[in-house]
Amino acid sequence: xxxxxxxxxxxxxxxxxxxxxxxxxxxxxxxxxxxxxxxxxxxxxxxxxxxxxxxxxxxxxxxxxxxxxxxxxxxxxxxxxxxxxxxxxxxxxxxxxxxxxxxxxxxxxxxxxxxxxxxxxxxxxxxxxxxxxxxxxxxxxxxxxxxxxxxxxxxxxxxxxxxxxxxxxxxxxxxxxxxxxxxxxxxxxxxxxxxxxxxxxxxxxxxxxxxxxxxxxxxxxxxxxxxxxxxxxxxxxxxxxxxxxxxxxxxxxxxxxxxxxxxxxxxxxxxxxxxxxxxxxxxxxxxxxxxxxxxxxxxxxxxxxxxxxxxxxxxxxxxxxxxxxxxxxxxxxxxxxxxxxxxxxxxxxxxxxxxxxxxxxxxxxxxxxxxxxxxxxxxxxxxxxxxxxxxxxxxxxxxxxxxxxxxxxxxxxxxxxxxxxxxxxxxxxxxxxxxxxxxxxxxxxxxxxxxxxxxxxxxxxxxxxxxxxxxxxxxxxxxxxxxxxxxxxxxxx
Length: 493
Fold this sequence. Notes:
Number of helices: 15
CATH superfamily of the largest domain: Carbon-nitrogen hydrolase
Helix content: 40-55%
Distance between the termini: 39 Å
Number of domains: 2
CATH topology of the largest domain: Nitrilase/N-carbamoyl-D-aminoacid amidohydrolase
CATH architecture of the largest domain: 4-Layer Sandwich
CATH class of the largest domain: Alpha Beta
Oligomer: single chain
Number of strands: 12
Structural class: alpha/beta
Largest sheet: 6 strands, mixed
Order of helices and strands: HHHHHHHHEHHEHEEEEEHEHEEEEHH
């Protein structure tokens, strides 16, 4: 059992290569199939849970190792404490594949197709639960690994990231039933036909245009100041931020100039009005800024300024636990790490898109774009998505390319272009079909000039959110549950 547990952890670690920056998208199919073979061979629910835990630890310790960078390298937490905190965080995330493994062992019917459907349904439900409970952390949900050129990307506008994860899990489960069979036989022909159907179906769906252009193309300058986090909140270094973003804006005039999350380390009302006018030039301005509230609190916001309209604001509604607010009972945490402005208030759940340069813009701040259903609250009115992030918190790590890949899924789900303005990277433009059309190298002070076309239309995912994927996941669990329930019934004498 020890060897199998180590192998499960290795499979989890290898899975990360399926995500950005390597994007070896077939790899998660194979590593998940390997985990499912181990689950089929488990002798108890406890063993299945342990294998799932090991796979999860391998995956998350490898894939979200940037948590340590954020806590220690940038946040100043002592190295041993940061290592323990990172391990504990990844262990909590690993509980979800452990729960899936235990549920599979308890509910399986020992019939290949119902059990493959069961694995797919439980996997999709497990990833959704991880993205919801305790405010959610859906990072490294397997569907994110299937951005273009993966054929499965075609299912994103219909079923979203959790639906793609469920399809990937079903394909992996069929492979596991085929290659890992012992007492259960399954013919390779139906397995290959089902796999081929998903690959061909996804490829054909990628040809569908779910939205259409509206309005005129918009010239946008996305500014990447590359101000180190260690200097950003030092009052003596404020002139550095002001000069850097001022020079970038003046040197790259556009119809819309976009600055990242809290680009200027001041409350919005403290930023000089003439400086803001200089940033906007002859066009309009969208910048991330901390906004003071009438009750004395403050929000992490986005502010739109234009010559023909007043100030429009958006307040971040999905805050980062331990980064932007203090969970109850954890005030002691902020004595161990340096995080400025760590007590934000959440914005209203529903906020209208901002009217900017003839487009309806739906801003989202930092990791808000991890939550697909929350992006939908501004749709179908919004014609353009813009993410404002300060990824300097994560240093030179996997977080930056992984976050861009997440943004690509949001563009696919909504059939809208997604623009990203970040402090250190990755500043980029994503087309409605999930392709990155332009991007700046990370850790360089520069401006990305793009021409973007707003889009309108309603994808099935925009209409139904995660309901379709969750409904199919529950339905997939039904056959195995029914068959297993019958086999467990005591026979009448």
